Amino acid sequence: MYARIATFEGAAGDIKAAVAQATQDGPPEGLNSKEAYFFADTASGKSVFVIFFDTEGDMRAGDAIMSAMSPGDAGIGHRVGVDLMEVVGHMTV
Quick one: fold of 2-86? Predict the structure, then answer.
């Protein structure tokens, strides 16, 4: 499994509302992902969006789709970093 981890800072609006809208709208066309998680520190305005993929190829294609998008006025701030990583472990506690 692979993951694209995008970090955002400077949220000017309601992060939870922005995520709810994105969830309602669904994933962008062509994004072949397994699942996604959005983490937020509403006090600091920092958030992290993690998308999981089955293959490295899907992750790289998904990165191209997501990198072409701009958060704009969505309320989540500006993207300050993106990491592409292989998931090498998982634990349920």
Answer: Alpha-Beta Plaits (3.30.70)
Using CA atoms, how far apart are residues 35 and 75, in angstroms rounded to an integer?
22
pLDDT tens, position by position, 33-51: 999 998 988 888 888 999 9
pLDDT classification of 71: cutoffs 50, 70, 90: low
Type of residue at 43: A
| Rg (alpha carbons) of the chain, rounded to whole number | 13
Residue 53 and residue 32 in contact, taking contact as beta carbons nearer than 8 Å: yes
Contact 11, 38 (CB under 8 A): no
Chain position carrying tokens 């983490």? 39
